[in-house]
Amino acid sequence: MNKTDRLLAIVLELQGKGRQRAEDLAATFETSKRTIYRDVLALCEAGVPIVSVPGQGYSLMKGYFLPPLSFTTEEATMLLLGSDFMARNFDAQYRMAAESASRKIESVLPETLREDVHYLQSNIRFIGTLTTPDENESEKLQLLRRALLDRNTVRFCYHTRHGEDIQSTPQTREADPYRLAYLLNTWHLTAYCHMRQDIRNFRLDRIENLEVLPHTFTRPSNLPLQQNQESRSRDIVVQALFDKDVARWVHEGRNYFVTDEQETPAGLLVTLKIRHERDVLQWFLSWGSHVKILEPDSLRQQLAEEARNMLQNYADRDCPEK
Q1: Hey, is 121 helix, strand or coil?
Q2: For the chain, which terminal residue's Cβ has fewer other Cβ atoms within 10 angstroms, N or C?
Q3: Torsional class of 151: left (φ above 0), alpha (ψ -120 to 50), beta (otherwise)
Q4: Is 272 in contact with 255 (CB distance < 8 Å)?
Q5: Cis omega (within 30 of 0) on the bond before 296?
Q6: Count of other CB atoms within 10 angstroms of residue 77
Q7: How far apart are alpha carbons 141 and 202 in whole angstroms?
Q8: Distance between CA 180 and CA 188 in Å, rounded?
Q9: In the structure, what pLDDT confidence band is assigned to residue 262 with cuts at 50, 70 and 90?
């Protein structure tokens, strides 16, 4: 970072965070305290009203602001979420650029808007590559973001799959929305379900007739990470052996529940930890005869039964006359 950029960045840092010590600024911009002293002096000579209090640090004189950029909550949230995503998924150079951009955006936001943006920023997560939502999904996301921000309870019809039953069973739920996460090409809502009296995860594509209710809720201050709770509940260990011919594609289409993969003379040995056997039934079926379940035996039997039923579907069909 050259001196001109650093001088502007120091002003933005003081404007956004308030009082900062020389050592804090030096750590932020990866330079020495002596350089910060010279930078502050240069800013004062340029007419920037910086107040220095011995032992407490530097601050801008009250009422001094750079000309503000005008962002809505949605605009600022998208910019900061985007910079977060870039910082996590690109190399060091882009990570530093993204973090610098975030500081500049945050520094020019009014305090109330900054609080709203930080709240959404800390409760929306992306894992995987985003795809463009359809019109229906976009409308649901817009309603849920507003409910998250205003802490409004929502009501919706939810389709749940129970065990072997692939018929959807819609239920009306009321829930307090806590987080949104984009995981493996699907949006998920973490919320307190009034019917279950507990925190639950809801797939957005299974939600219908979503509406935001007028009454609000108080969000718990010590909200646990739902992902960690789910991870602890995965106590079913599955081991499967894939043919060598498809090992590359198994790596490429790695299942969310996979915990270990080992190359063996017989093929690729894959270990998964799941909550319910139905979590991986369809995935294993998609590999056909290229996979063999080693354990548990109950899952082997389910796959064998499903294969027999599939064969019967074709055996029952009348053969066309030649």
Answers
A1: helix
A2: C
A3: left
A4: yes
A5: yes
A6: 21
A7: 13
A8: 6
A9: very high
User: Are residues 295 and 238 in contact, defined by beta-carbon separation less than 8 angstroms?
Assistant: yes
pTM: 0.51
Which tokens is 199 given? 């925190």
Position 23, amino acid = E
Q: Closest Cα to residue 174, out of 196, 155, 152? A: 155
Q: Cβ distance 83 to 95 under 8 Å? A: no
Angle between helices 73-89 and 111-122 (to 10 degrees): 50
d(Cα 14, Cα 107) in Å, to the nearest integer? 8
Radius of gyration of the chain (CA): 27
Amino acid at 121: Q
Mean pLDDT of the chain: 81
pLDDT (mean) for 138-150: 88
Closest CA to 59 of 23, 17, 100: 17
Within 8 A by CB and 6+ apart from 206, the residues are 158, 159, 160, 168
Structure tokens at 114: 């900054």
Count of beta carbons in the 10 Å neighbourhood of residue 296 = 14
